[in-house]
Amino acid sequence: MILVDNRMYLNLHHRELFQKLLPLESQESDQVIVEPTKKGSLTMKIKWNDKIRYLHSKYDPEHEAARLIEKWTNVEKYEQVLFVGIGLGYHIKQFANQYPAMKFSIYEPNPEVLVQFFTHINIKDWPLKNVQSIFTGTDKQQLTIEIQKLLNNGKNILVIPLTAYETIYVNELTFIMKALKEQLLHERTNVATNAAFQKRWTINAIKNFPYVMKTPNILHDVDPSMFKGKPAIIVSAGPSLSEEFENLRYIKENGLAYIFSVGSAINALISHDIYPDAACTYDPQAHNYRVIQIIKDKGITDIPLIFGSTVGYETLENYPGPMLHMIINQDTVSSYLLGRSEKKNLEILQDAPSIAVVTFELLCRLGAGPIILVGQNLAYLHNRHYAEGISYGNGSDFISDEKLKNLPTVKNVYGEEVPTNEGFNQMRRQLEFYIQSYSQVKVINTTKGGAHIEGTEFIDLDRVIKQYLTGKSVENNWYKSTIHYERQDLSSHIRKVEQGFDSLENLFSNLHGVLNNLDRLAKLNSNTNLENVFKKFDKAFSKLRKNLFYQVFIHPMMRVQNKRLEETFQSIRFHKNLVQKAEIIVNETRKFLMDCHAHIRFIEPYFKELKEFIESEC
Fold first, then answer.
1. Angstrom distances, CA of residue 570 to CA of 456, 561, 566, 586
2. If pLDDT is split at 50, 70 and 90, which confidence band does 341 have?
3. CA–CA distance, 141 with 132 (Å, rounded to integer)
4. 338, 617 in Cβ contact below 8 A?
């Protein structure tokens, strides 16, 4: 039975883990055994591949633990430690004694080992304030979530495995190391994306708001029976699309499945006289309008455009056909103005590295199935970036053999290695994440020679037609619907934001006053008074963060700066030298506030434009 002190600790701090362990504590197990050592302490052994493996020394586990920790040097340069394997915790206790200030987490793949640990070791003597998380199991999706939580507490992580686990749980250990690397890469990509688009998302959200108000929301206004259980094809611009035009033409002419074109694929389809049931677009960049320029140039009026609310606003100008929208999570403007007006929850789609990923989530939410991927190469084929009929005239259509040699590779649908790049890999991983999240939806990948996408079944499109597309499924006027947004509350919402704008000057004045006081006390070396002013600073900064105008307009445009400042505050949270702490707060916050002022001046005319539109509408 788990010890009483441990039960109280787990129930209070790790309740989800405690619920997992409770059913196991009453079960007799011959897989994990605790026994006394020659020196009178305890050791643990487990059955693995019909053999007995000791997790600690049979003679002196304490001495063995000391030797294990000695192996790890320069520990201070890491922000936290992840122990893989707990056993009876000798190595972790040794580490905690040697590095009393270091935060650590514990991943134990085998929940039975954790039960035995909590049954035999009372952790009330451990430095529990340093324990950030304890998790168990081998589910990859859950492990990825736990890794993400760890990285939120510090990017520089030292992984210390139990020696026996380097053999017993080699797959889990490899996955942990790979997940850490991929999450860090994902984090860097997110920072780069935020830096590139953080202003643009908010500008687009403001400029696009009139279009949002005047077009149907595909997730709220369209009759869900149009898509429920109906096959839908996501057509991407990969080079393998070139092999499927006749199949797609046959599908379109017979209404066998909804065809949703994503990104540049629209150009290839139209050049082959195939009009999809919808074109989807979401890229916030100004040049995104070029992707659908062919529709405007030809004056095509019967291709519905489904746009993300943060798409480059130039894309929507003078679009000749019907339009529908989907609210993207980067859009804080529509989320605030409409989310408060909606009687039901406003459905919001997550931004992603590719419009194909956003469209996949959209189709899952609409209840479509199976979802069929066409031209989703996520790798290079015959040195090509895109399918035939797609060219931007900048030399990007082809990639040289020389460049291909230096690229990473990925397994394709036939099990062969093919060249890819990190952008494609990022898209693939994100798509795989959503496929796993919507595991009830059958996903078929028809992309010949494309990257293998976990969770999909590869089937040639002509075979898919015979097996899955056996009758008419498409409703021609599916996009015609009534707009249900309520307008009566918009005026009051925009007035509240304006009130927030009007109160910013006082908030900034108060913050600058507190910073000046901190600066003065730091120069006087007045440690006693600094503590009180730190509390005043926290209160003043909190008021700025709660300001409605700041939340809706300024914070979204300063994601990178906010993250950097937050990381700075986190790093000095337990700083013992109060004078140095004060100096860092003063310098970094003053720079941040200057940036805030610049962003307020920048966004003010856009805000006035939005306010005028809402007042004219309401």
1. 41, 14, 6, 15
2. low
3. 20
4. no
Q: What is the arithmetic mean of pLDDT over 171-185?
A: 77
Structure tokens at 74: 């320069």
pLDDT in tens, 221-261: 999 899 999 999 999 999 999 999 999 999 999 999 999 99
Greatest C-alpha distance within the chain = 87
4 burial via Cβ count (<10 Å: 0-12, 13-18, 19+): exposed
Residue with tokens 């599908």: 251
Tokens of 204: 């687009």
Phi, psi of 107 (to 5 degrees): -115, 115
Reported pTM: 0.74
Which letter, b or e, does each residue of 442-465 get, where b requires 16 or more Cβ atoms within 10 Å of its Cβ?
Answer: ebbbbbbbbbbbebbebbebeebb
Q: Which residue has the tokens 């600073």?
A: 537
Let me know how long the chain is: 618
Structure token digits, residue 101: 């200030």
Q: Please tell me the distance from the alpha carbon of residue 92 to that of residue 58, in angstroms, as a whole number.
A: 18
Model pLDDT, residue 394: 52
The residues that bridge with 42 in the sheet, in sequence order, are: 36
Q: Give the pLDDT of residue 375.
A: 94
- Residues 29, 33: Cα–Cα separation, whole Å: 8
- Please, which pLDDT band fits residue 189 given cuts at 50, 70 and 90? low
CA 512, CA 159: separation in Å to the nearest integer?
Answer: 42
Nearest Cα neighbor of 443 from 360, 545, 507, 366 is: 360
Report the DSSP pairing between strands 323-326 and 131-136. Answer: unpaired
Name, of 141-150, 306-315, 425-434, the range with top average pLDDT.
306-315
Is 74 within 8 Å of 119 (Cβ atoms)?
Answer: no
> At 393, is the pLDDT very low, low, confident or very high (cuts 50, 70, 90)?
low
Where does 456-577 have alpha helices with state H? 461-468, 490-523, 527-546, 548-549, 555-557, 559-571
User: How far apart are alpha carbons 614 and 618 in whole angstroms?
Assistant: 6
Residue 304 has pLDDT above 60, yes or no: yes
Q: Is 552 helix (H, G, I), strand (E, B) or coil?
A: helix
